[in-house]
């Protein structure tokens, strides 16, 4: 109900059994009588939650609320309870399902939250979808109500992440726990980190505070965790010793007794938390092997020398150490940035997903897309560092042994005609080795050949003739061409599209039907191997490929592509595609060849997803020729 309808109930409660005219209600609320009568119909439905409540209408006399004392008291308290948002209601219901020992009825939840039971049903459906990621199920028993079924470990993980159910920042958990509880746990953790030298990030520390608060709460509620005794032994680790010390402090501060399994549980969290540096000497060879497999595969897929980026390797090593521990211990991971990463970096996500499939073939765990999205950020940062280096103004050394006058003349000519270059020095041939040891140089322009130099060198005439200028232009053009992994052109899609693989007015029931249809069309045209279709379906089941703006880009393993092609389906109605709605599907069958501009194509489609006008023009296209013309000629 809205605020005006709540005001009507407030007035009726204050009048008791005395009737009030609809006209008088309208005057008090500053609205029309028609509005009041419509509100009264809404209130009739809501008041069904109170068995004795009934709106009595007496023509010519007025209207009043008939209700017994108990229901009146309940309605009064519900009326003046803080008006919570739907997000707060979702979190509160989820929290009660996680912590209440008794089943919850629709009527009970409806009365507690001052909404109709249909809204509660919708809330429960939303909550169930969220619970599924934690292996939890809402079950219902007739005449008893709804209750939650699942393991204690999963319930704790859901409790710790409960604010994410609303996909927005909230302070719900801070209202659940007392300030002194939060301060006590944080103080103990600060001491533990200092004492046991655990390099935990501040974000990881905040998360750990919540996990420990949940641990204390669940222990007080007699809900201890039970660890499978066959799980990996970690008693001899530094984290285990830190966890044991931490639990001793918690027992003393909160006056509780924590089971031994809680020490193992906290150890898992310490080993799975994000660090800002490597904590162990990393005897865990599996982390090194995963990193090596990933870097090698990413280089093959992107033709970028990631192994040369020391910052990337160090960052990934720290991240993967926590990832492998989380996977080994079975901790679910949530990533609130997942959808944004899908939209912003579809190319990199595609490449990382392929590399993680290679990892899964070698190692006994499957890295989920939430983790993959975090890994994307590491590789994207590396790409941007490399781009920054390539975009930087080339630092040029001029080498000339024909005297200072000729050297200065040559320098002046280069500076005048090539302002995108920075001349860092002009030296004779004998000074080159000494100069490049103390200065960074990207290019040497020399009037004489130079031996044993690994820096690109262009030999020119001292007078900088036309042929010399062509050499310099080729160098700059080549540099610009490789300067960005997202370099593209308006016609980049044209060479990979065929009318026979464009399908208009498709009306599927599920996104898998679209992927299968396009994959089979590619196979019949001889563009892909038969197994490509199955592999693309598996990838789509694992991670929806919508990139926003009504666009999806399903794809399979590039090693199964015979001839690089893009198949397209235009849907008659938007189709649910993961958490997005999609109207145009581009199935990318692109072989992993250096000549194929895969990254440019995906970047182009990503740009399309941000151009609603062009998407509209494509959807309005009445024939294939018009669709292809809009797609290849439009500037976006």
TrEMBL record:
The UniProt record lists the keyword Transferase: yes
Keywords linked to the UniProt accession: Repeat, Transferase
The PTS EIIA type-2 domain, residue ranges: 495-634
Residues annotated as domain PRD: 176-280, 282-389
Occurrences of domain PTS EIIB type-2 (ranges): 394-484
SUPFAM superfamilies (UniProt xref): Phoshotransferase/anion transport protein, PTS system IIB component-like, PTS-regulatory domain, PRD
InterPro entries with a match to the protein in the record: BglG_antiterminators, HTH_11, PRD, PRD_sf, PTrfase/Anion_transptr, PTS_EIIA_type-2_dom, PTS_EIIB-like_sf, PTS_EIIB_2
Domain of life of the source: Bacteria
CDD domains named among the record's database cross-references: PTS_IIA_fru, PTS_IIB_bgl_like
Any Pfam family: PTS_EIIA_2
Classification via PROSITE patterns: PRD_2, PTS_EIIA_TYPE_2, PTS_EIIA_TYPE_2_HIS, PTS_EIIB_TYPE_2
Keyword Transferase (UniProt): yes
Protein name (Swiss-Prot/TrEMBL): BglG family transcription antiterminator
Species of the source: Virgibacillus dokdonensis
């Amino acid at each position: 109900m809205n605020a005006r309808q709540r005001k009507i109930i407030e007035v009726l409660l204050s009048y008791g059994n005395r009737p009030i005219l609809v006209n008088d209600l309208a005057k008090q609320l500053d609205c029309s009588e028609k509005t009041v009568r419509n509100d009264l119909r809404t209130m009739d439905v809501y008041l069904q939650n109170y068995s004795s409540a009934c709106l009595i209408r007496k023509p010519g006399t007025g209207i009043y609320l008939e209700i017994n004392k108990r229901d009146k008291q309940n309605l009064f308290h519900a009326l003046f309870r803080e008006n919570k948002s739907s997000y707060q209601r979702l979190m509160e219901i989820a929290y009660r399902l996680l912590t209440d020992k008794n089943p919850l009825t629709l009527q009970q939840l409806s009365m507690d939250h001052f909404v109709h039971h249909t809204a509660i049903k919708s809330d429960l459906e939303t909550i169930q979808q969220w619970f599924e990621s934690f292996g939890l199920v809402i079950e219902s028993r007739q005449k008893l109500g709804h209750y939650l079924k699942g393991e204690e470990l999963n319930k704790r993980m859901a409790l710790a992440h409960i604010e994410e159910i609303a996909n927005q920042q909230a302070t719900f958990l801070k209202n659940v726990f007392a300030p002194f509880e939060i301060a006590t746990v944080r103080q103990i953790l600060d001491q533990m980190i200092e004492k046991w030298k655990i390099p935990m990030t501040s974000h990881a520390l905040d998360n750990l505070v919540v996990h420990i608060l949940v641990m204390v709460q669940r222990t007080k509620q007699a809900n201890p965790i039970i660890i499978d005794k066959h799980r990996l032994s970690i008693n001899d680790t530094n984290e285990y010793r830190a966890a044991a010390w931490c639990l001793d402090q918690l027992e003393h501060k909160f006056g509780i007794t924590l089971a031994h399994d809680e020490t193992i549980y906290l150890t898992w969290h310490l080993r799975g938390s994000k660090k800002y540096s490597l904590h162990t000497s990393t005897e865990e060879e599996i982390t090194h092997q995963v990193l090596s497999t990933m870097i090698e595969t990413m280089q093959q897929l992107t033709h970028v020398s990631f192994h040369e980026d020391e910052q990337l390797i160090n960052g990934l090593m720290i991240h993967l150490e926590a990832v492998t521990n989380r996977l080994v211990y079975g901790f679910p991971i949530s990533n609130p940035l997942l959808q944004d990463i899908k939209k912003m970096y579809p190319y990199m996500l595609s490449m990382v997903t392929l590399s993680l499939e290679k990892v899964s073939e070698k190692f006994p765990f499957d890295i989920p897309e939430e983790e993959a999205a975090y890994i994307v950020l590491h590789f994207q940062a590396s790409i941007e560092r490399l781009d920054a280096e390539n975009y930087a103004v080339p630092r040029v050394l001029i080498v000339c042994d024909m005297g200072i006058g000729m050297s200065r003349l040559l320098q002046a000519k280069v500076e005048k005609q090539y302002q995108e270059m920075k001349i860092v020095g002009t030296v004779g041939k004998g000074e080159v080795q000494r100069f490049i040891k103390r200065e960074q140089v990207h290019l040497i322009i020399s009037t004489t050949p130079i031996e044993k130099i690994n820096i690109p060198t262009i030999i020119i005439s001292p007078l900088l003739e036309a042929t010399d200028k062509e050499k310099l232009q080729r160098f700059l053009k080549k540099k610009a061409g490789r300067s960005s992994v997202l370099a593209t052109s308006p016609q980049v899609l044209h060479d990979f599209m065929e009318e026979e693989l464009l399908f208009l007015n498709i009306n599927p029931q599920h996104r898998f039907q679209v992927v299968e249809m396009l994959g089979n069309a590619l196979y019949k045209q001889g563009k892909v191997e038969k197994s490509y279709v199955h592999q693309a379906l598996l990838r789509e089941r694992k991670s929806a490929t919508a990139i926003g703006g009504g666009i999806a880009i399903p794809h399979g393993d590039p090693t199964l592509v015979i001839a690089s092609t893009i198949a397209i389906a235009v849907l008659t109605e938007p189709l649910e595609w993961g958490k997005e709605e999609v109207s145009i599907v581009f199935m990318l069958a692109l072989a992993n060849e250096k000549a194929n501009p895969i990254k440019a194509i995906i970047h182009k489609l990503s740009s399309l997803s941000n151009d609603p006008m062009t998407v509209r023009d494509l959807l309005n296209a009445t024939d294939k020729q018009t669709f292809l013309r809009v797609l290849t000629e439009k500037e976006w």
